[in-house]
Amino acid sequence: MGFDACVRYALALLAAGIPGSLMADEAEDAFVEANILGIFYHELGHALIDVMEMPVFGQEEDAADVASILLIDHLFEPESALAMAYDVANGFWAEAVANADDPVPYWDVHGPDEQRFYNTVCLFYGGDPDTRDDFAEDMELPEERAEYCVEEYELAADSWGAVFDDLTQGGEPMVFRAEIDGSFTARIIAAEVEALNADFGFPEAILVTTEDCGEANAFYDPSDTAIIMCEEFEDHLRVLYRSLSQ
Fold first, then answer.
1. Mind giving me the DSSP string for 167-178?
2. How far apart are CA 87 and CA 183, in angstroms?
């Protein structure tokens, strides 16, 4: 599944006349950027649940995953959103393969990576099934699940959509700080914070930082109302990307 999506993206770059060596770099960078943004939107979901005092009926991690794929669907043009959905979903699949001998334990607050993969695929497909049939087919979404994806998307959009609408009514901007100026992660997050601040205001200021954490991770700290994006996550994602084509 992951390999098919990488080939699909590579063929598009080849058709655009991009040399093979640059093509590989472009595809890898796109995968890393999409997954950095995907996890950032996930952590933003946690932040919104906190500062907006949202009720969550179920696992908060699942709700944050839903927020992430909905933001990708809503914030980007269709072709860009589609490319990101491939990469973000394949990020979960690559994690599942990499952790096959040490999977997410059943007691963990996060769902299994395979389930997060299929949830992401289903929700994105459900947002526009008429034009995303190829996406569902490439990702081998079972028909038994696909028939419910439109309903799943509509429920998710109704739930999170009201929250996103409230953010257009003014409020505080997010504040960005980088421990390492100019890093790949810092550039991506700085640009995204600026873009989101142009459209959204928050009930209180949310701090967003990129920093060395000692681990490949990202998290929301409610005590500081802060989203922390770890610099180590980039290298981890590059290893995952390279594993997809092996």
1. TTS--BPPEEEE
2. 21
Please count the other Cβ atoms lying within 10 Å of the Cβ belonging to residue 204.
11
Q: Which one, of 42, 188, 47, 54, lies nearest residue 119 by Cα?
A: 42
Q: What is the number of other CB atoms lying within 10 angstroms of the CB of residue 118? A: 20
DSSP state, residue 128: -
Residues 174, 13: Cα–Cα separation, whole Å: 34
| CA–CA distance, 107 with 179 (Å, rounded to integer) | 34
β-bridge partners, 228: 209, 219
The H-assigned helical ranges of the chain are 2-15, 20-51, 60-75, 78-98, 113-127, 133-138, 143-146, 149-166, 184-199, 232-244
Domain ranges of the chain: 2-244
Q: What confidence tens digit (pLDDT) does each residue in 119-168 have?
A: 999 999 999 999 999 999 999 999 999 999 999 999 999 999 999 999 98
∠150-155-159 over CA atoms, to 5°?
Answer: 145
